[in-house]
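Design request, tokens follow.
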């Protein structure tokens, strides 16, 4: 399995900054669409057949409408957007509503040639797409949020999404015999614990507690570090001395 975290700091000399979130799995599945619609060319974007959304916050859905427009081809099957009922409802009410973006879901959907398909995912019910088995697992954030377990038959990888300390995810992880990595968020430094608590995110102190719940020797990849506090947060993560920890970098590729 090949996983790419798309770079999102356009024009910056520091491509490690992560303003918004998109992961690409095997060049065919996207986890979130924060910067997906601004990635490479429309032809490159057209390789993505499925988009799995973790939740409704803008840094995870921001460029979804642009992506859908970029890849639309009436001669081919439309992209399938997967998400919880809450996510799909928000797409209809808050984005594709003829105010924020044209209504590609209903009003501008030509019969037999829709711009996109919506597919509701449910907790712990796996979806099979493009040779991958993808299972949504609830985590603890301000809005309904799913992490995703992605399994290609040889390796499993967990995309932990935005979350405060959580439990169900680690129960699922404990049952995976081929777990190769967990992408786990750490948004704020320790002295901003108050904001992490209010916003449903984590600090390095909490990251360490979550790491202790993970299966032994499974690599952890720290993601979703707020750019303004990146240096301080990374220094505090490094001070934890977790031997299986790496820090994700925009444009980086992980192979499992």
């Amino acid at each position: 399995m090949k996983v790419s975290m798309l770079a999102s700091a356009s024009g910056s000399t520091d491509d490690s900054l992560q303003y918004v979130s998109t992961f690409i799995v095997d060049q065919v599945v996207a986890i979130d669409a924060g910067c997906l619609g601004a990635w490479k060319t429309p032809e490159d974007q057209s390789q993505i057949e499925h988009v799995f959304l973790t939740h409704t916050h803008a840094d995870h859905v921001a460029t979804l409408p642009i992506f859908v427009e970029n890849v639309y081809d009436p001669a081919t099957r439309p992209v399938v957007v997967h998400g919880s009922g809450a996510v799909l409802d928000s797409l209809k009410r808050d984005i594709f509503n003829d105010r924020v973006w044209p209504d590609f879901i209903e009003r501008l959907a030509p019969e037999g040639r829709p711009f996109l398909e919506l597919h509701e995912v449910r907790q712990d019910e796996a979806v099979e797409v493009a040779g991958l088995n993808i299972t949504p697992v609830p985590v603890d954030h301000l809005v309904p949020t799913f992490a995703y377990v992605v399994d290609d038959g040889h390796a499993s990888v967990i995309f932990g999404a935005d979350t405060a300390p959580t439990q169900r995810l680690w129960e699922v992880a404990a049952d995976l015999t081929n777990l190769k990595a967990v992408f786990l968020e750490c948004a704020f430094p320790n002295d901003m614990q108050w904001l992490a608590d209010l916003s449903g995110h984590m600090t390095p102190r909490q990251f360490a507690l979550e790491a202790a719940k993970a299966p032994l020797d499974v690599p952890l990849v720290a993601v979703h570090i707020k750019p303004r506090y990146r240096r301080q947060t990374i220094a505090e993560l490094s001070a934890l001395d977790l031997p299986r920890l790496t820090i994700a970098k925009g444009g980086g590729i992980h192979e499992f």
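Comment from the thread starter after seeing the answer: thanks! The mean pLDDT is 94.
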